[in-house]
Amino acid sequence: MIEIKNLKKSFGSNLVWENVTLSIPNGHTLAVIGKSGCGKSVLLKHINALMTPDKGEVLIDDVNIFDLNYVDLRIMRQRFGVLFQSAALFDSISAYENVAFPLRYFTKMTENKIHDRVMTCLDMVNLSDIGNKSTAELSGGMRKRVGLARAIVLEPDYLLYDEPTSGLDPETSNEINELINHFADNLNITSIVITHDMHSVLEIADYAAFLDEQKLSWYGKIEEIRHTQHDRLNSFIRASEYQI
Ligand SMILES: Nc1ncnc2c1ncn2[C@@H]1O[C@H](COP(=O)(O)OP(=O)(O)OP(=O)(O)O)[C@@H](O)[C@H]1O
Fold this sequence. Notes:
By secondary structure, the chain is an alpha/beta fold. Helices cover 38% and strands 25% of the residues. The protein has helices at 40-47, 70-77, 95-106, 111-124, 140-152, 170-186, 198-204, 222-225, 231-239; strands at residues 2-11, 14-24, 29-33, 55-60, 63-64, 80-83, 158-162, 190-194, 207-212, 215-221. Adenosine-5'-triphosphate is lined by residues 11, 14, 16, 34, 36-42. Adenosine-5'-triphosphate (ATP) binds at residues 11, 14, 16, 34, 36-42.
């Protein structure tokens, strides 16, 4: 379980947000929404301690990750898969090698075991036939799927997604949303997704967190978002392309 308690972050005199408190039960998906610059990416970077807060805690199964030493933090980070906005693939190596990379870096698996695991993960994202292709040859949707295969290759408990459908057409976005749902439902992965896409929020999320006015302005179950009386959240939703 991920619990965020009373988190505050500023850069110099720029307060990003404060008093951020929320929790995500295991196997559920949280969507983080809000205007550009409200601090969604900064929040995501706190969850696996890529950034440290001014104040507050991020508890993973009751352990505050900011208390961990270097070795324990490295072990904790292996429980997280991350899909970056750009997919962040290495273009000089094949799709297969991109997915194999975390296994080579973090484990002592044999080549046979690496092969089996990489092919299983490529199969899960419906890309079992493209392993030898260079990632530079792939479409945006395929790159995201290779990024997803790499994110799950170490069998993480948690997946962090930074705008997984940005730049994709609606049909390809739906394919990515289906994969996110598949991972949550079948692999019991707890996910946090930053997105500007309200359609995706409704498709994939169990909970939503709305960052606004330098705080967590609204947090609740996704069913409640349709009936919220929160004016600023309502106008944020109305301004999105997708009307709920
Ligand atoms: N490394 C950093 N150093 C200084 N300021 C930063 C740093 N990272 C982010 N910020 C600032 O923190 C604030 C929140 O940025 P963040 O990238 O989290 O916003 P966001 O909600 O993800 O935006 P977008 O939707 O445009 O991606 C911004 O004012 C940004 O300039």
